[in-house]
Specification:
TIM Barrel, 39% helix, 15 strands, eight-stranded parallel β-sheet, five-stranded antiparallel β-sheet, 413 residues
Length: 413
Amino acid sequence: MKFETRDIEITDGEISFNIDSHTNNNMDCEDYIVIPGLINGHFHSYSSLAKGLMKEMALPDWCNDSEQGKVQQAFFEYLDEVISEEDFVHIAQKSYLDMMKHGVTFVSDSDPGEAPHLLHDAMNEIGIRAMIDVYEDIGDYVQQTDSNVSFGSHLLEEEDITNEELLKVKELKDQYNPIMMTHCLENEWRSNLVQANFGKSSISLYDELNLLDEKTVLFHTVYASNEDLDVISRNESSIVHCPLSNLDTGAGVAKVNEMLERNINVCLGTDFVHTNMWDLMKLTYYLLKINQPVNQYAAEDIFKMATVNGAKAYGVHEEIGQIQEGYKADFVFLKKSSLKPLIHQRNFSTYLHNLLFSEQTDLVQHVMINGNWVVKDRKVLTVNEEEINEKYSQIVNGFLNHLKQSTLHKQEH
């Protein structure tokens, strides 16, 4: 988390500090601060289409018999029964483009729809790095990992846990040993459910079957007890902190301070609807300030969660998340002029703090992934952004028409 002024050469998509003076393809970066690409550790690909639909409603109440719940029912019906697999991927692409233009170079997607292979192709077309959760189908995808996109599997949410299902997950773990992820103790409802059924937390159940290790990624863990956190720490598992989502759904505030005190690897995820990592990082910073000494946490802690910690969670920390010799050239070029006053002395710097709290309108100018430009002068270079936005608008209008027809049908009955 220290800033240096150095020359970098990119060779076969990797970082090198051994500069070849005869290189002609040079870029003057004097007007930029360059940081590693941001890592979004948890996201649902379809969720950008759901903006506002879940407002002020707790997760267990989604799709209830209220007017809002019926709109939500129509939304999921539209996703499951109306749109094509290709349209589902178009929704995801729209989200990835929004993320990429804000400096995200890696995303973990927990909702690949019915065609993860199409999502894989779309990610490669855009150029973003990714992890796709393919649940119990990991056997069909484990050999399809490429340089940008990997596949992982799933543990069980509390409402799905049975002894039989746990054993099935154990079999997948033993056979393929993939990254395994899940929403874990996300809210009080899920915590109470597993306690009522088993008399213990889901963390304890996973631990008993040796399902927790450095390849386990747990989303949320808002209702993890200190004993649960001790178990997570002992097994070197990672937690994806999702405060925007947790506050949206009334889940509460995760005990991130206690997690960090136990040296748990904590990274960040936008989860549902949100795609702007900078908003997430600012909220994370301020939540860590509640009832803590003002100097307890700094911007450096937040940027670690958004870069190297996310890379560690998904097992790619020796390739991305830092600007180091031999690492992949995943860079975000930030406009210095947006960050005044910039002070960088031996023992005091405003660089990273000012980055965290800068205006985001035009801060991110360029984004590079694997040594290739994916965003230049705030324009996406890999795909036709206008076409994707137009397709997304058509899908939105399709949902509005479906909602209207669904409402009319119910009124007639």
